[in-house]
Amino acid sequence: MLAVEGAYAKRPFLKPVLALGVVVVSRLRQDAHLMTPPTYGKGRIDLAKRAGQKRGWRRVECVQYGKRVTKEVKTFSATWRPAGGAIRVVIVREADGWLAYFCTDAAATAAEVLEAMADRGAIEETFRGLKEVWGAGQQQLRNVYANVGAFAVNLALYSAVEAWAWGRGEEELVDRSRSPWDGEERRPSHADKRKALQRAILRAEIRAVVGGQAEPEGFQALATRLLDLAA
After folding, report:
1. Which of 107, 131, 221, 227 has its CA 20 to 30 A from that of 25?
2. Is the pLDDT score of 46 beyond 90?
3. For residue 25, what are the contacts with CB-CB under 8 A and spacing of at least 6?
4. Span 2-127: which CATH code?
5. Domain residues of the chain, as ranges?
6. Is the pLDDT of residue 157 over 90?
């Protein structure tokens, strides 16, 4: 199964990939020209109207981003020319609207489609963290193998931070002492995790140098301010 972003949900990509026997899952345009089965039936399916109808929604359980969640969906089979035939359509209702996905395996379940798209989103978050936090792709290197090596280093550092933060709670990874009004519940970002690891390393190094003198309250406050500046 190949989960891709909506830009690849087009015939020039889908045709050769499907010929290889690969199942594709992706976003579906809200104005996609869908028809009723059998192959390219006469009835036109309007996604916006389907999503706007109050009836027909049902709840399904799936695992997204490591957690079991319940989603409200509508799912049905349709035919779509870019995919060369029948597809499974899944409309999911979110807090800020609705999204439509498709799978070229018409027998796929709604849970399988939603889980595949969530997995793709997690991979995209990883690449965003690599680029924004570690600067992957910004290294000024001319040799192709040096670029490959630099990217491998970024991957190793990213993995080390994630492994260190794996069993730690949000209160240990996110410092919101300077913004007590920020009480919104959300997962710690990779940047939060890296800063937490930086603080832990600097704290350990300072205590190792000063030994037993690291306990007085005044020193602790000073060390905390220095850690904030460094991390």
Report:
1. 131
2. yes
3. 1, 2, 3, 4, 101, 102, 103, 104, 108, 113, 116, 117, 120
4. 3.90.350.10
5. 2-127, 129-165, 170-230
6. yes
